[in-house]
Amino acid sequence: MSRLAAFRQPIPEIIKRHAGDAAFYWSQWSKARYSFIVNAERLAHIEHLLCAHLDGLTEAADTGWQEAFGNLKRWKGPGETFVCVLLALQHDSQERFTLMWPTLEANAHDCARGFISALAWQQQRSPSPTPWLDHWLKTADSPLLTTVALRASACVGQIPLEHATTASQADSAHVRAAACRTLARHPNNPEAAATLLHLTNNTAPNVAIEAAIGLLHQGGDSATAQQALNALHNAILAALPSLTALKGSKRRNAYRQLRRWLFYWAFYTPIKQREFAVTLEQLPPLLQIEAIGWHGDSAHVDHLIKMMHTPELAPAALAHLELLTGCDAEDLHLTAPIDQAQLDTAQNLPPEYQAMPFPNVAAVTHWWQAQQPIAAATKVLQGKPLEQNQTSLEHCQTLIAIAPRRIARIAQQHCVVISVSA
């Protein structure tokens, strides 16, 4: 073997590192939408690191694939799935999909997110669209493949209405639910709205709930929107009791789903509705805080300040105060000095809040009492009232470009609402 050929041989330790780190950075990239710290610039940096490890695996060819596939068989997680599926798509390899399929199908609840993400990633970043998405939309005889293709097509904005309408009549409830997500991407479309309205009566709960969310995206009449909100509200309350009994990945998946439902219910519920305050008291404390942020009513700031007296909730409550009011707590000296008790508490917080500062509750209370009301009859985001006009649209577009991803996600949803209403 020549020196050059020997130099180009993959080094096993490096390939192993590429495979593990690619799955890790996909996880960080995926979770960034919940972050109060990661903005667009930081997200681009995480994506750059992810791409570097993916490039290393691609350069290692079959050796890189074998290492990534071994991780998938061992861990069966969404990050490992993303890496393997992306390598299979880039290699245009039916053989690789055949090897993966038993693991993907047996662990669909854990693997589906990575599968969808890989397909959407390849579709958005490839010079030429991957034929696999269109192929699975048209010919897939597997509910999992059809579900993945529908949801990936919704992620990248390629939304074939005819495929979604056909899928809405499928035998699989998962396929019908995915069809609802795709139909939701057709705002002000009478055919899509009629199909979604029909599906709100579906006997499969996940289908009815996705149809309700889709109707909210449609921006229809107030009676239909209230019907959808009621369905979503009932589903949230029904899901809460079973959550504490679940463990491991089942609990994580159920909590992620519940959080998603709560986001849309809180976001679309009009302010000043008494039902919101009543339901808030029935939620676990952390979800109360998050729902207030998603809802956007500054009348609930006092509730956030009350939650700051509980150390385990204080960083989240302060973060959502900033979300609503646009204040910079550190610049305004509203944060508490760091001590060991805070560090110990932070270790047990959800990851998105572990790096957040703790509030000086007395200072926060005094500051808020000195503020003028932000708005009496409109939702707010970062201290600005949100209305159906160009000023609010530009405010949200600015936040999408520069704000942390948690705030940018809410701004993006407001952009959708403003655009649909225009």
UniProtKB/TrEMBL annotation:
Entry superkingdom: Bacteria
Matches recorded under Gene3D superfamilies: Leucine-rich Repeat Variant (1.25.10.10)
Record-linked SUPFAM superfamilies: ARM repeat (SSF48371)
UniProt-listed InterPro entries: ARM-like, ARM-type_fold
Protein name: TIGR02270 family protein
UniProt organism field: Gilvimarinus japonicus
